[in-house]
Amino acid sequence: MSELRAATLGYAVLAATAIAYLVVYTTSLGHLPTPFDYLSLLNTSLPLVFVAIGQSLVVLTGGIDLSVGGMVGLGVAIVAAGSTSGAAVTAGWMLAAVGAGAACGAVNGLIVAKGRIAPILTTLATLSVYSGLALKVLPVPGGEISPAVRSVLTDPDVPTGLIWLGVAVAGWLVLRRTRFGMRVYAVGSDETAARAVGVPTVWVKVGVYALSGVCSGLAAVFYVSTTTSGDPNAGDSFILTSIAAVVVGGIAFAGGRGSALGAVAGAFALTLVIDVLFFAGIDPLYQSLFQGLFLVVAVLLGSLVRWRRA
Amino acid sequence: MMLPRYAKALLALALLLPGTVACSSEKATPQESKGKLKIALSNSFIGNGWRVEMENVFKAACAMPPYKDQVDCSVFNAGNDVATQSRQISNLIAQGVDGIVINAASTSGLNGVVQQACDRKIVVVSFDNTVDNKCGLTVNTDQVKFGEQLAQFIVDQLKGQGNVVMVTGVAGTGADNDRNAGAKKVFDANPGIKVVATYSGSWDSATAQRQTAAQLPSLPKVDGVWVSGGTDGVIKAFLEANRPVPVVGGEAENGFRKYLAGVTPPKVNGMSIGQPPFLSVISLELARAVIKGEHPKTSVTIPFPMVTSETVKVGETVFPDLPDSFFADFTDSGPNATVVLCQEAATDGTPCPGKTLAVKLG
Where is the chain membrane-spanning (chain A) (predicted)? Predict the structure, then answer.
């Protein structure tokens, strides 16, 4: 299955929301979106893009990672609490945040694979643990990062964010073609068969959860960079939105089918929906209703096509 | 291969959506009313009574003079999601508003986008859960003082001797931290006071009641309760456990004040202060005044509306016909009131008949 086909649903949804965005924006303001709009859209989407890639990997093995909320929160707390002086120190703490994510993710993976506990239970429990750690590291929102860091990661005036988006996409494309990447799909399609042909399923799973942690750590780095400071509860909203991005991206929850690129497109689509509702002038009270409807329609379309094909 | 089928359906959806809402958007944004300031309220979430009242009094104020003739208001909610609120503020910048009034989903999470607004000479005023970025103005109360004032009242009533329980708010928020710090400072300074339990009620009456009910059996005699929010729930838990209701220092829930006034028996001895929902109106006034050059670009701290079991007045600071969960401090009272609003402004967001709003920025 080619990368393009695997991510079709995500691309189609993204294209549709992008058209809707252009239409409502132009009718509401009388001109096309400006570079400011595209840039702020890119920068606010980046953290979700990273979490969604990590979530995709886990879902591809047939699992789910609810602890992304805790891992992003912990990462944000580490970066924000440590970044009191200079760009070099901040860079160090950013590495630490990614490392912490990897460690937390590996713990998830070990419990899921070695302990044979359902991913949803495991990560629900570790979500609390990691969120608690985040509160311990940074009890109240705060911290400040140097403008130098921001201008490298998510400059509000120059699209440096595009570089990182490119790196993320390229990273996925490479990973997909490695032996590890193949094994992720093998485990997700049929774990027993994969084990029978000698795939070390335990270590594939540990690797996948650890990578999800790394992605959460990276998301935390970009979160702190766009917001310029930290909040220990920052991760909470990523739990549902990352799963939503995966769903919109057309990745099968049974595992083994789909592409993280679909989830990346899904992440952008979810961010665009907020803007569409804004410029459409929808009553604030109905906004979450429409966001939910959007999800339902996207999922229904996905399963409709799959059902027809079957 | 499957692309066309998806694309067609989604395209139809995409074209349908703006079509159906076009009519509603026209009346929501009155086009280019000359000379009026555009001020938007960006609220993080609308999931509790306080937020509803806060938005209602904002809408009511916008429909009353002088705002009616000077300001075009709009209101946005972000579902407590920093990314959503950040997008909404970006979009407000794109719209070219003159002022943005914010109750933030995260005190630090909006720093980036608020800086962008400031760079474009938009006046940003945040209140309640304020934005850290120093380029914006804030309207708030002193949360440390909230903790201190209630704790001091309890200490005074107990004459410095007794067991006290602390029911805290949502952990990880600035207000919760400040309130707790203020209370602890006072309790620590009084060696006769023993804090026998501290637990979170999450600023929610039902949660506070449940937590209190769970804690009570293991607690010794309780002489005082300090509550950051969900006060009526805490009192109900004491009543249900058949324990005497101690001295209570709590928030401004109407249900709590009903006990203070004796409207709901038994009459409770206590003090009620609260974060007033009309902070949104003060912020609106500050934004308007700063844009018009009538007020210097400085932040504002307003005093807490406060009542005790002695001073609480039916119809003025407690409302028997309104639900327990209603925040009774939607209006200030007394000769030095910051702003006086009517009941329908808080319940329905409708303007107080025949009234011109006067807001004291202190």
Answer: 7-26, 38-59, 66-87, 93-113, 120-138, 158-175, 202-225, 237-254, 261-282, 288-307
